[in-house]
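Lab notebook, bench 4. Still working through the backlog of constructs that have no structural model yet. Next entry is a single chain of 410 residues. Request: give me the structure tokens for it.
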Amino acid sequence: MSTTAHSRPVIRYLDKTTPPHISTLILMVGVSTLTMNIFLPSLQGMADYFDVDYRVMQLSVALYLGMNAVMQLIVGPISDRFGRRPVVLTAIVLFILMSLGCIFAPNATVFLCFRMAQAVIVTAMVLSRAIIRDMVPASEAASMMGYVTMGMAVIPMIAPGVGGILDTLWGWQASFWVMALTGVALLIICWKDQGETAVRREGGFRRQVQDMPELLMSPRFWGYATCSALTAGAFFSYLGGATFVGEELFHMSKIKLGFFFGAPAIGYMAGNYISGRYSVRIGITRMIATGTCLGALGTGVSLLIFVTGYGSEHTFFGFMIFVGLGNGMVIPNATAGALSVRPHLAGSASGLSGSIMLAGGAALSALAGSLLTHDTGATPLLWMMFLVTAAAGVVILLVARRDAKLATLQ
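Model written out:
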């Protein structure tokens, strides 16, 4: 069933003639997120199993993220041309096969190839956003995305712990069996529930490529995409440096660090809830501006505390709740804004904005890890997080100013 961004489609659960239920969209995001980090506690065991250095198995993270960014660029235009449903179903089938390939890989090289190919599941996450934008207008899309992406906060908190239990009981392959089985469950649900939402366009894939400059030349698209990338970059910086801060600077045990590490996820869930509840009423631009202010406030106060010599693990991780809160308010709204610039290219916009966010965040994560030493303490990380969040605030103000100027000209 095709819909437009201006119609309000009727949705019936497990009816593939109507658009997918929100629970299906949440599951699409959840399986994509689960795949990223459930196996992390097994890295050392995998290195022992394949008789390679630990750093070789760490490539399973870097290669996955790299392919993830590439896939986000590809699947959007393809789905704009051929439809969301066939692209999602094909990607899930491939993901199941790649997960089985990881389980039965005879050596580390083959494993890494299959692991890299597992990134095809990001199709489900990218197109869940495009499907939302197909179904409802931009302000309501931001609200729905707020609820859908709450899974991106909960799963990273619990998946590594679950992976550790699975590894202890059944070995490193258990996590990949869980990935394969969740892939099967997702395939069944999407097959029964995910009706087509994209409006088919004439002209073939060449037309999609020809229309891409229309998106790339839009200042509003780049404004929203940059704002999302910078805000997410603060969180990626945290991921790159927080373990060092906790273990090396404050000598926290792994159990205590694991407990404190999830602080941003608490804020992220709250921010997602606020987005889901109030984005329609407040508007996406004001919601983004508020989120960047809260993120900058949290990192700024934490930085001030550390500069004055009163920093501790409690202040460092406690104020990271504000970073998660800002992310939860900014990312769903900025994503909805990027997708609303050219609704007929929603899939392309979703993939491109997601790729920009991931690539920028990965670079900031690596930079954060390289800047921290015992001599510098946590201040370089806090400075980086404060500056990128503040920069996101400047970007959204420029977007708002341009929108106001265009409104006066109409």
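Notes after review: The CA atoms of residues 26 and 148 lie 5 Å apart. Residues 1-6 have pLDDT under 50 and may be disordered. Flag for follow-up if needed.
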